[in-house]
Amino acid sequence: MSPEKYPPTPILLVDDEAAWLRSLSLTLREATGIDNIIRCSDSRQVMAILRGTEVSLILLDLTMPYFSGTELLQMIGQEYPDIPVIVLSGLNQVETAVRCMQLGAFDYYVKTVEKERLITGIQRAFSMQEMRNENRSLKARFLDDHLAHPDAFAEIMTASKKMRAVFQYCEAVAQSSEPILITGESGVGKELIARAVHRIRCPGGPWVAVNAAGLDDTIFADTLFGHARGAFTGAERDRRGMIEEAAGGTLFLDEIGDLSHVSQVKLLRLLQEGEFFPIGSDTPRKLRAKLVFATNHDLSGKSGSNGFRKDLYYRLNAHQVQIPPLRERFEDLPLLIDHFLSEAAEALGKRSPTPPRELATLLSIYSFPGNIRELRAMIYDAVSRHRSHVLSLDSFKEKIGYSTDLPSPAPDTEIIFPERLPTLEEGRHRLVMEAVRRARGNQTLAAAMLGITRQALAKRLKQFPDATPVSPVRAAGSGRERVLQFFPAH
Ligand SMILES: Nc1ncnc2c1ncn2[C@@H]1O[C@H](COP(=O)(O)OP(=O)(O)OP(=O)(O)O)[C@@H](O)[C@H]1O
């Protein structure tokens, strides 16, 4: 596959001196890898070019025959106000610079400026442009609640509004040249989201995934950057690193929070310079892959002497996609249960069993520290054990530590009472309502939690037709530890 051009939308250089245009193109190519350039030495052509081609940035000379730079700046500002224009002038005059900025120029440089400053200005214009596009795209998506690439998310089962917002954000940032950082607890589906971003951004390109956990510095560098023949004992031939393997596609770097300091520095350099050296080679290679990172650590919290470098964190964090844990989107349970039941039945060569009606409700009292991966494993286990037509709840109850033999809180469970103790009747009322709330209205399950029959629960509920708000219950740590609070009703 031919390497993609950078930036994907060309930049337009306008100057009446063809020699200057050539030398500027060369500088840009060498210093930044920008090779998607349109050169224009006739100021009369500029508006026609803009009508026919989308451009990401214009570098504009001021003194030209036919139309001057300031005239063009006004015309561009009127017709294409979103395209940033950087003025490059031979004149070092404050008034001219001020006039250009008033006319909407993004920046102003004299032609003798050091190339580093010009390049920083260009990069700022790109970032600004990306932010604008992202903003616009997010607004449009949130307003019409529409997904432009629903197929990209096909393998992710969800009915959750929070996940829908995650999908929309992914669509908005997928085309950005900045890296994407996906965060969330272990097993929430970070890799699935990374693949979806890849399908949106470079569907035909390679997908290369590297798990950074446990890689020492040398193996990390060798894996990512590759090596030249003779770089170390045993390096008998050149070997391309994963960054090159992913050119034109996506490099997914998982467990990024586990990187050592030395590896973090190498990664930072790659992000800052957009190029790297294979071990033992002094020829730089361009980074031509989209970078997507994932971690289940809070990298901002890890920043500091023993944790994650702040500068790297800010580079990675340009677009952060935070995936909510399963316990914050239990509305996904029915879909996920069905999905994994069919998947498990197929993998194990069995008929897909019917899930009991109470399964989703039962599971929604558990906090799922291992998230969807844990749910998947539970269902695989239950399917492998099951014999009859309807799946038994027993293996699930065992896994989540739910037992009808122990309906009351464990002896070490702390119960916080208000200053005025609830009466026995009030306390009973609260417990009943809390069980119904946790069981999401499923009376069989609520009755089992309370250690009474369904009929007894129904009778009690009839006594409390005007249900008062249920007492808040904090789940602490795993699904089993709980702190019950009896607050006054009002
Ligand atoms: N919404 C979903 N629909 C279907 N399967 C899912 C969903 N979310 C996660 N899974 C499945 O759950 C498992 C864990 O997902 P994944 O590996 O993407 O999680 P992760 O967040 O990257 O985990 P880790 O942090 O441990 O690397 C995989 O088998 C994945 O296919």
UniProtKB/TrEMBL annotation:
<dbReference type="InterPro" id="IPR025943">
    <property type="entry name" value="Sigma_54_int_dom_ATP-bd_2"/>
</dbReference>
<keyword id="KW-0597">Phosphoprotein</keyword>
<dbReference type="InterPro" id="IPR003593">
    <property type="entry name" value="AAA+_ATPase"/>
</dbReference>
<dbReference type="GO" id="GO:0043565">
    <property type="term" value="F:sequence-specific DNA binding"/>
</dbReference>
<dbReference type="Pfam" id="PF25601">
    <property type="entry name" value="AAA_lid_14"/>
</dbReference>
<protein>
    <submittedName>
        <fullName>Chemotaxis protein CheY</fullName>
    </submittedName>
</protein>
<feature type="domain" description="Sigma-54 factor interaction">
    <location>
        <begin position="156"/>
        <end position="384"/>
    </location>
</feature>
<feature type="modified residue" description="4-aspartylphosphate">
    <location>
        <position position="61"/>
    </location>
</feature>
<dbReference type="Pfam" id="PF00158">
    <property type="entry name" value="Sigma54_activat"/>
</dbReference>
<feature type="domain" description="Response regulatory">
    <location>
        <begin position="10"/>
        <end position="126"/>
    </location>
</feature>
<dbReference type="InterPro" id="IPR009057">
    <property type="entry name" value="Homeodomain-like_sf"/>
</dbReference>
<dbReference type="InterPro" id="IPR002197">
    <property type="entry name" value="HTH_Fis"/>
</dbReference>
<dbReference type="Pfam" id="PF00072">
    <property type="entry name" value="Response_reg"/>
</dbReference>
<keyword id="KW-0547">Nucleotide-binding</keyword>
<keyword id="KW-0067">ATP-binding</keyword>
<dbReference type="InterPro" id="IPR058031">
    <property type="entry name" value="AAA_lid_NorR"/>
</dbReference>
<dbReference type="Pfam" id="PF02954">
    <property type="entry name" value="HTH_8"/>
</dbReference>
<dbReference type="GO" id="GO:0006355">
    <property type="term" value="P:regulation of DNA-templated transcription"/>
</dbReference>
<dbReference type="InterPro" id="IPR025662">
    <property type="entry name" value="Sigma_54_int_dom_ATP-bd_1"/>
</dbReference>
<dbReference type="InterPro" id="IPR027417">
    <property type="entry name" value="P-loop_NTPase"/>
</dbReference>
<dbReference type="InterPro" id="IPR025944">
    <property type="entry name" value="Sigma_54_int_dom_CS"/>
</dbReference>
<dbReference type="InterPro" id="IPR002078">
    <property type="entry name" value="Sigma_54_int"/>
</dbReference>
<dbReference type="GO" id="GO:0005524">
    <property type="term" value="F:ATP binding"/>
</dbReference>
<keyword id="KW-0805">Transcription regulation</keyword>
<dbReference type="GO" id="GO:0000160">
    <property type="term" value="P:phosphorelay signal transduction system"/>
</dbReference>
<keyword id="KW-0238">DNA-binding</keyword>
<dbReference type="InterPro" id="IPR001789">
    <property type="entry name" value="Sig_transdc_resp-reg_receiver"/>
</dbReference>
<keyword id="KW-0804">Transcription</keyword>
<dbReference type="InterPro" id="IPR011006">
    <property type="entry name" value="CheY-like_superfamily"/>
</dbReference>
